[in-house]
Amino acid sequence: MQWLYLIIASVFEIGWIFSLKKLGFAEIRKISFQSLSQQPSESFLTVLPLLGYIGFGLANIYFFSLAMKQIPASTAFAIWMGVTLTGVKLIEVLFFKEVSKPMDYVFLALIALAIIGLKKS
Predict the structure, then answer these.
(1) Which of 1, 50, 65, 92 sits in a 20 to 30 Å window from 42, CA-based?
(2) Contact call for residues 68 and 76 (beta carbons, < 8 A)
(3) Which H or E run includes 63?
(4) Tens place of pLDDT for every residue, the chain, 121 residues?
(5) Could you tell me if 116 and 86 are in contact, meaning their C-beta atoms sit under 8 angstroms apart?
(6) CA distances from 42 to 24, 59, 76 (A)
(7) What's the burial of 33, exposed, middle or buried (CB within 10 Å: 0-12/13-18/19+)?
(8) Rounded to whole angstroms, how far apart are CA atoms 41 and 112?
(9) pTM higher than 0.85, yes or no?
(10) Containing H/E element for 82?
């Protein structure tokens, strides 16, 4: 079950990363109580990345802490980071049409191989 918690934590970390990418300093400066009361629908779209940032971050911490109850910290962290890096790269390529090179996939395969090795040991 702890391995499932680790995968769930990685998924929330991916969401956190993309909400962080959307939530820039300019977006934070747009949020004010006056603007929230004047244009609720538009303001909600401004606040949404902040809510995602908070929600994904808290969920990530919660599931990662559950996973680390049975998995050694170094193994959990390495696998969590590897799954997150792989997920972020795949989402960028598939949904955001980021250009990737063939060597990117070689390195992603090496990350996957390392994850399998850590899980087996």
Answers:
(1) 92
(2) yes
(3) helix 40-67
(4) 899 999 999 999 999 998 888 776 555 566 555 555 556 566 666 678 888 889 999 999 999 999 999 999 988 998 999 999 999 999 999 998 899 899 999 998 998 898 888 878 7
(5) no
(6) 17, 26, 40
(7) exposed
(8) 42
(9) no
(10) helix 73-94
